[in-house]
């Protein structure tokens, strides 16, 4: 299975940028967890074009603005692992010191205050995932 399929692209697409796709991470270790993946298939960070780095800087500011205003997270972790999925991508994990309520579902940050617990995710129904995706699309579109 290729990386894009694994991340449920294009169904998980929140926003398309010049060099990146912003996706909802359907396995939510914390509320609002995202994937930012290169559009051009680079598998080495050193292969990235300068435009991608310039674009990345603007995207990070937008991500932080939206996640902090929408969900009131205390921190945001950016993890670039690329062990199972070769294309350059980041796991973007908002961090919370307390549980967060979203559409009557309580989301936990199981790793707080240490590293995010990627092996333990919030068990949510598809209907909540869809609401989360819709709201994030709306907030990123109107940013």
Kindly list the characteristics that best describe this protein.
5-stranded antiparallel β-sheet; two-stranded antiparallel sheet; HIT family, subunit A; alpha+beta
Order of adjacent strands in the largest pleated sheet: 1-2-3-5-4
The unreliable regions are none
SS strand fraction? 15-25%
Number of strands: 7
CATH class: Alpha Beta
* Average residue pLDDT: 95
CATH superfamily: HIT-like
Number of domains: 1
Distance between the termini: 33 Å
Q: Tell me the number of helical segments per DSSP (H or I, 4 or more residues long).
A: 3
The secondary-structure element order is HEEEHEEEEH
What is CATH's topology name?
A: HIT family, subunit A
What characteristic shape results from the CA principal axes? globular
- Percentage of residues assigned to helices: 25-40%
Radius of gyration: 14 Å
> At CATH's second level, what is the architecture?
2-Layer Sandwich
Instruction: Kindly name the structural category.
Output: alpha+beta
- Please give the largest β-sheet: 5 strands, antiparallel
Characterization of this structure:
- It is a single chain.
- By secondary structure, the protein is α+β, with helices and mostly antiparallel strands.
- The chain has a single domain (3-141), classed as HIT family, subunit A (2-Layer Sandwich), CATH 3.30.428.10.
- The chain contains three helices and seven strands.
- The protein has helices at 3-6, 50-71, 126-141, and strands spanning 13-16, 20-24, 34-38, 75-79, 89-95, 100-102, 105-107.
- The strands form two sheets. It has a five-stranded antiparallel beta sheet. Strands 6-7 form a two-stranded antiparallel ribbon.
- The mean pLDDT is 95.
């Amino acid at each position: 299975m290729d990386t894009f399929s694994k991340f449920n692209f294009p169904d998980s697409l929140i926003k398309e940028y010049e060099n990146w796709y912003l996706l909802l991470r359907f396995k939510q270790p914390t509320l609002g967890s995202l994937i930012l993946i290169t559009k051009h298939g680079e598998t080495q960070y050193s292969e990235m074009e300068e435009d991608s780095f310039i674009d990345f800087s603007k995207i990070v500011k937008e991500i932080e603005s939206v996640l902090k205003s929408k969900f009131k997270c205390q921190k945001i972790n950016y993890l670039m692992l690329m062990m199972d999925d070769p294309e350059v991508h980041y796991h973007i994990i908002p961090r919370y010191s307390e549980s967060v309520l979203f559409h009557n579902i309580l989301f936990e940050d199981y790793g707080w205050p240490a590293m995010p617990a990627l092996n333990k995710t919030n068990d949510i129904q598809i209907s909540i995932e869809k609401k989360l995706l819709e709201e994030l699309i709306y907030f990123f579109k109107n940013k």
